Each structure stands twice: as structure tokens, then as C-alpha cells.
Amino acid sequence: MNPKKERHYFFLNPYQDMSFTRCPKCDGLTRIRKFCLLIHVEPKTMFSLNKSCKYCSLCDLIITKQTEIEQNLAFICEHKSLDIIGNKHLVLGTIDRKDWKIGKTCKLSPPEAIECFYPFKDVLRFRVEPAGWYHATNKDE
Questions:
Q1: Alpha-carbon span 33 to 16, nearest angstrom
Q2: How do residues 45-88 score in pLDDT, each as one tens digit?
Q3: Every domain of the chain and the residues it spans
Q4: Do 28 and 22 contact (CB within 8 A), yes or no?
Q5: Is the separation of the CB atoms in 53 and 64 below 8 Å?
Q6: What is the structure's pLDDT at 29?
Q7: How confident is the model at residue 110 (pLDDT cuts 50, 70, 90)?
Q8: Mean pLDDT of all residues in the chain?
Q9: What is the Cα–Cα distance from 46 to 73, expressed in whole angstroms?
């Protein structure tokens, strides 16, 4: 197995009311871009999902909402009669669009999917503090 170069930083947005029209790293505007995401669902299932995500080209950061991923997975599982709805899942990385199209026409085995995917450089976490007045925690302030 040839290790592939890592691509993109990733943020799985857990906030339902925050859509990150600005990048949380550089404060630049994000754009909408489609990415083919490879997702592992416990116990042994993989999905490739062609999804519109927020993207900051300056930071190479993909942002997608956790609820949207879960809704897409639930929809797929219902149509394929899979009993894994609600299981733990992990977005592993991206795959090339040509490989995603091949996976749509003929099923790729998990080892074949692993061969095609590019892991993320890093998975980032951001904490949002709502605007407002806060009590000073430091007496020197």
C-alpha cells in the first residue's frame, strides 16, 4: 500500500446554529465547494459522500455540519436497508471525484476505498463563544 499525501484540514461543525460563512482560522470568507468524503460507520461499513461543504482556500479548511452528515447517512441506510443508523461514524478524508464515480457504478471494497482516499492533514476543533458581556475572571483586568 502506497501512503498517499494528506490533503486539507477538516472541521466537523457540531453547532446547528452556526454555518461558518467566515473561516474560524483566518476570518476570511468561506466558499461552497463539493468534496467526496470517505466516511467509516461502525462496525465495518464505508460510504463515499459527494457533499457541498464550506471551504476556506487560504487555510485549506473543509467545514461541514455534523447534522448534515448524519442526515445523509440515515437516508442512505434507510434506502439500503442497513441497520446501522445512529452508529458512530468518522470522516476519514477525501477521495478523487473519478474514484467516487467508479464507486457509484461498481461497489468498491473497503481495501479498494482505502487505497483511493487521501487522509486529512489534521482534524480541527473550534469552540464558539456567543457574543455578549462576560464577567471578568481575572482580577487584574
A1: 20
A2: 788 889 999 999 999 999 999 999 999 888 887 776 677 777 78
A3: 9-123
A4: yes
A5: yes
A6: 95
A7: confident
A8: 85
A9: 10
Percent with pLDDT over 90 in the chain: 41
Q: Which residues pair with 93 in a beta bridge?
A: 38, 119
Distance CA 101, CA 36 (A): 10
Most distant CA pair in the chain: distance in Å?
Answer: 65
| 118 contacts 7 by C-beta, under 8 angstroms | yes
Radius of gyration of the chain (CA): 18
Q: Which helix (H) or strand (E) holds 13?
A: strand 9-13
Rounded CA-CA distance 40/54 in Å is 21
Residue 14 CB contacts under 8 Å (≥ 6 apart), including other chains: 66
Q: Which helix (H) or strand (E) holds 54?
A: strand 45-56
Fill in the DSSP letter of residue 18.
-
- The region that residue 96 occupies, defined by phi over 0 for left and psi between -120 and 50 for alpha, beta otherwise, is beta
Q: How far apart are CA 99 and CA 44, in angstroms?
A: 20
